[in-house]
Amino acid sequence: MAHEISRRRALKGMMNGAAVTVGVPLLDLFLDGNGQALAATGAQVPVRFGTWFWGLGVNPNRWFPSKAGTDYDLKPELAPIAPFQHKINVLGGFNVPLDGAPNLPHRSGGVAMRTGRAMNADRGLPGASFDIAIGEKIGTRSRFRSLEVSASGDPRNSLSGRGGGNLNPSEVSPAALYKRIFGTGFQDPNSGTFTPDPAVMARRSVLSGVTEQRQALEKSVGAGDRQKLDQYFTSVRQLEKQLEVQLTKPEPLEACVVPKEVADREVNAEIENVIENHALMTDLLVMALACDQTRVFNMMFNNGASSLTRIGSTITHHQLTHEEVLDTRLGYQPEATYFLTKIMEAWVNFVAALDKVQEGDRTLLDNTLVFAHSETAFAKFHTIDNMPMMTAGSAGGAVKTGIYVDGVGSPVSRVGLTLQQAMGVPLDRWGTKSLETRKSIGEILV
What we know:
The chain has 446 residues and is an alpha/beta fold.
């Protein structure tokens, strides 16, 4: 009978299984001549999705283009993107309505972008971030559903999670990130031999047992508990799908080159170290994508209330945005703007690293959609109107590039809706209250 299946019994098998390391996903990736399909199977080249976050916004009058459309002008703070302007969209004029909720400094803007909901409490996420829905669409046949990375040293620096106040913690050490991706559990897809991992086979058996128990348990509880169980077991269902391909011999991945091991190094918020750690993590993340270890990622360059400093200084980027005197001759705060300049350079280096990897006649960047944004527009006043955002890459041809879009004061949730639709998530509306929208950004959708 249903009441004889206890929740403890249903979870015990999964917990035992979760202690076993999951192996590598296996896919056929010899490309055809035009780089759009896999020669062995005719299946499409994987499309990837990621986010890239920077804290403390921009100087709006020095960053946002003046002219919408193609061939948009580059103001001084956006000028670093010039080499990739044709592959980058700039999004401006999108606002964050709060419906009476407080503007929590350095939190409300970024959270609303990622969840389509206004924050009411300064913790976690009020709902699932859109990368979760995208991961459920494209990330179930890779070793990691997603990888979260922070270059500035704080594992709590994350805007990814399923809601309920929870966040997916970020990896902060390049050395640890290397071991996670290419250490125990990794199998080189270009190796001439393949031996199924007995631990993976055992874990698959355990999860199958849990599936049967889960179904019985869900029949024995009420609607509220059934909803909670469904969210809890979503990750289990994803893991089951991943293990199905784990036990299949892969075809080689032409773009996959296993990197050299990364040595331990200093991890802190000094901009000089953050830049170097970001570069190392970028290279690892690029190869994680090229080796199909993941198809979804979240890269955090710094945190919202940016704790970045310069070597030899205790004054943070955040302090400077509030305390540095505005240079009336220049029209901006030069010390605070130094950090923004370095951030934009790091963003361009990230884009360049993706674009270096060839996949047929396309690049890894062309087969990826990256959403870059901050959590505020002008940090000195914590403004959350006219939020600075960009996209890079065309998601395998689903997104037009080289365009500046002016949202003319419309809700920022239009961006989240558009990103999900571009990645194949079947929805026609997204967000809550004033953030609810049915209007995607048609200017960039193919």
